[in-house]
Amino acid sequence: MGDSLTKITTEKDGVPIGPQSEGSDFIYIYPQGLEKLLYFMKRKYKSPKIYISENGITEKKDEKRKLEDALKDPHRVNNILRHLYHIHLAIKNGVDVKGYTYWSLFDDFEWAEGYIPRFGLYYVDYKDNLKRTPKLSAKWFHSFPHMCLIACKNSSTQKLPQV
Question: Which of 13, 56, 124, 159 is the most exposed place for a label (fewest CB within 10 A)?
Fold first, then answer.
């Protein structure tokens, strides 16, 4: 089911909307697009309550990548921060966002691309009984709400936490 008035594209005037995510043929990094979509939803559907149920970034599954390197994913943390920042701007401008869920907790099987992309906050070792190891992003995501509370108490500026 889709919106008949929607055109799905990754370009505007022949230029990509943002960089392509590693390991995916169809995901492009465009956090301001999420903000624009939230404003559209507010206008078109008279300010509904919005729950963002899937928002994530991939990396390519690379069998040669060492585990210690696979666990370092600052690009994922930065991507989450950028999207949360644009969600925050939309909320400040009256969009009723009630929830946000990162996709996905674990590296998983994607219907369109199989096991090639890795979305997870946890690394899944497909060769070792699906052993799960938290990536940098999992540790960061766990501490993020606490960091925000401290930042709100200690600062009147709106700076994004650094990785």
Answer: 13
Q: How far is residue 40 from each of residues 50, 79, 85, 86, 103, measured CA to CA in Å?
A: 12, 22, 17, 14, 22
On whether the CB atoms of residues 9 and 63 are closer than 8 A, the answer is: no
97 secondary structure, DSSP code: E
pLDDT attached to residue 76: 94
Which distant-in-sequence residues (6+ apart) come within 8 Å of 46 by Cβ? none
In the chain, DSSP finds a helix count (H) and a strand count (E) of 4, 8
Domain limits, the chain: 23-154
Q: Which value, in Å, is the radius of gyration of the alpha carbons in the chain?
A: 17
Closest CA to 137 of 115, 163, 160: 163
pLDDT in tens, 53-63: 989 999 988 88
CB within 8 A of 87, min separation 6: which ones?
34, 35, 38, 52, 97, 100
